[in-house]
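Hey Z.,

So I finally got round to the fe (iii) ion thing we talked about over coffee. Here's the setup:
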Amino acid sequence: MAFELPPLPYPNNALEPYVSAKTLDFHHGKHHKAYVDALNKLIEGKPEEKQSLEEIIVATHHDDAKATLFNNAAQVWNHTFFWHCMTKGGGGDPQGEVKRAIDHDFGGYEKFAKEFKDAATTQFGSGWAWLVFDAGKLKVIKTANAVNPVAGGETALVTCDVWEHAYYLDYQNRRPDFVQAFLDHLINWEFVARNLEKARERHG
Ligand code: FE
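And the result:
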């Protein structure tokens, strides 16, 4: 079955002024859609048509002959996940379980924020910064291009897209300003909390 472009979970102007409606229109309507369309073309009539997105990602990671399929499948997954990582009035310090986990594993929100910003700004070229749950702990990682925690075996809790298309219309070359706005005003901590709860249930 063909994959579909999921709608944004909010109106295209919901994240202004930190992410403009114009950026969301291009990023979701052009970039994300292009990955969905390319993925559907690649799997048409193939066994992958019957697989989930996660199954395709795991099976094609490290397979050079299927790099294009991996890249498009992973980018569909990454963007679908990324939209939920942001919300109007988000960002700043988390509360509850997420706060406790961040305090325990990073030594406080400020240390987490610095590590996340460092990862996001030092990722050379295109990629993603992630907060993941791995072996019972929260960790910050960065990945290149389309690579994601689904491929790496960690559980994604939150991500920031640091491809230029994510911020160039609003911030031009100022990636650190976009990442700071993501941390201060956009992170959807309720989504992070739900992901952490599911990750802990799965890994006991
Ligand atoms: Fe993107």
